[in-house]
Write a structure and sequence with these properties.
Largest sheet: 9 strands, antiparallel
Distance between the termini: 26 Å
CATH topology of the largest domain: Jelly Rolls
CATH architecture of the largest domain: Sandwich
Structural class: alpha+beta
Number of helices: 6
Number of strands: 28
Helix content: 10-25%
């Protein structure tokens, strides 16, 4: 039991202690929360962020690391089918779409098999309206006999009508229309965050050059320009280069506001994207050609925001550890099954601090101490059973080795100023001392003196 406890504590302390940095995360209440990864974490963690670990005390909290590059989420909604009937020899019915903000298709549930039919769709906001807008035609079919599948989807232009009127010319009977389902698409826009990097701006011949310096390991994915409002219509080519003047990407920025042939044209493009780059220097070159330089008030680099999503707990106080190149990336069910909530709560970070529980400098030393202490536990637990003289010599040797390791470790840790920070190590040495005192009481012949830890 003692051995299992010692090994468990050693492994637990080691898993966190190898991570060199930490930041507090104050999540209030339950539900889905997230923190946005900033430059401080990028500088001290792996480039893939695979060494991030979130803890509540000694309990590891699973998370999902998501790049906010934008997505489209669809939510299925059952819609009501009304007034199935026959009009002029054709099946006709209404669909109540008032529960959807907008839509572009409806899936019908049909009982008819082995058929091909033509369907016409109309829309109106008034169920009893007389003038219905035509939304197009669809071909419905079921080819089960030929094993060629089926189609029961009505496709329409993106619409917001509260009601649809569907007329089917074919063998589909009113009672065969069993129901309908539609989807509402919700666009999740990309989330961009500015990087803290002020560029050096200069003119190089006809080109305007912005030179950015930023910490290595921080990914950059686009540059955004700030234009003077007085700048008139223009179109310029832009090149993105690294410190060796190797081109990483190119694009165009423009501002076009004019009227041609009675048609108004409005265009504002002020960003140029490029592949994920994590060097130290980026040069952004604006090619002015024979035109005057643009009136640019500045430029800044941006990256897609990386968010670490997790479920909040009752305690609220969490700690994010990071900074171990050799740590494998975590595999959580939470990340595999992750679904973004409708209103996840953003959580701020505390200050970045060095995690000094156990550093690399003393990792090997403490591993030796844990190993020796485990041997001592084994020998001490067997002391009452083993009475052979050889066992007495084994215990004597182990005690000597233990004492030597303890003395060397105390000097080592005291000199580095880290032992005072490690409460777990103090407990371990205290346990060893108490065990040694117990052996001394059992052997009153003076083989061992009372142990006093001078550093506690």
């Amino acid at each position: 039991m003692k051995i299992s406890l010692a090994l468990a504590l050693a492994l637990l302390a080691g898993s966190i202690s190898y991570l060199h940095y930490q930041r507090t995360v104050q999540a209030t209440g339950s539900g889905q929360h997230y923190v946005a990864i900033d430059e401080t974490i990028w500088q001290h963690s792996r480039s893939d962020l695979g060494d991030l670990r979130l803890y509540a005390g000694q309990t590891e909290i699973p998370y999902a690391l998501i790049t906010e590059s934008g997505s489209q989420q669809r939510e299925q909604t059952t819609v009501s089918v009304l007034q199935q009937s026959v009009v002029s020899g054709k099946t006709q019915f209404l669909i109540d779409m008032s529960g959807l903000a907008e839509y572009d298709h409806v899936n019908l549930s049909l009982a008819t098999k082995n058929f091909v039919a033509h369907a016409n769709v109309e829309g109106n906001d008034d169920l009893h309206g007389k003038r219905w807008a035509s939304l197009g035609d669809s071909i419905l079919y079921d080819l089960s006999r030929e094993s060629l599948g089926s189609n029961s989807m009505l496709r329409v232009p993106r619409a917001t009508f509260k009601y649809l009127r569907v007329t089917i010319d074919g063998p589909v009977k009113p009672q065969d229309v069993l129901g309908a389902v539609s989807e509402m698409a919700e666009d999740q826009p990309a989330v961009w965050r500015d990087l803290n990097s002020t560029p050096k701006q200069e003119q190089n011949g006809k080109d305007t050059v912005f030179t950015f310096e930023f910490p290595k390991n921080v990914p950059v994915e686009r540059v955004t320009f700030a234009l003077d409002p007085a700048q008139t219509n223009f179109q310029r080519g832009v090149s993105i280069k690294n410190e060796n003047d190797t081109e990483l990407s190119s694009g165009e920025i423009n501002r076009i506001h004019l009227v041609r042939n009675g048609q108004k044209i409005d265009s504002e493009v002020q960003t140029v994207g490029f592949s994920n780059y994590s060097g130290k220097i980026i040069k952004v070159v604006v090619h002015n050609g024979d035109d005057p330089p643009l009136k640019l008030s500045g430029a800044h680099l941006q990256q897609l925001e990386r968010r670490l999503y997790f479920e909040g707990n009752a305690s609220g106080q969490l700690t994010l550890y990071y900074g171990d190149e050799k740590l494998e990336s975590p595999i959580y069910d939470y990340a595999k099954l992750f679904i973004r909530g409708k209103t996840p709560q953003p959580v701020p970070f505390g200050f970045n601090t060095k995690h000094t529980q156990i550093t690399k400098r003393n990792r090997r030393l403490l591993n030796r101490l844990f190993f020796v202490s485990s041997i001592v536990f084994v020998v001490d637990d067997m002391a009452r059973l083993l009475v052979h003289p050889l066992c007495w010599w084994v215990r004597k040797i182990v005690r000597c080795e233990r004492k030597l390791f303890a003395q060397l470790s105390v000097k080592k840790l005291q000199s580095s100023g880290q032992f005072a920070l490690d409460a777990y190590a103090r407990v371990r040495f205290s346990q060893i001392g108490k065990m040694r005192d117990w052996i001394a009481e059992c052997e009153p012949d003076g083989r061992a003196s009372q142990w006093q830890p001078a550093f506690l």
